[in-house]
Amino acid sequence: MLARVPRFPPRFLVRLEIPTDATVRIEKTFGPGHYTVWGAPELFLGAVVDIVQIEH
Fold first, then answer.
1. Is the pTM of this model over 0.90?
2. 38 neighbors 25 (Cβ within 8 angstroms)
């Protein structure tokens, strides 16, 4: 039996509260309002304060 794969998998918006003294690199990338943040995975996991599923 084949499992059905959704055409568009669920998308999520995650809000992080990163401490001002955290060791991260932030750069404006891609289109308007898009930033890329680099840092230790443990820092990001601990900084998650909210997760919302985005409807298509």
1. no
2. yes
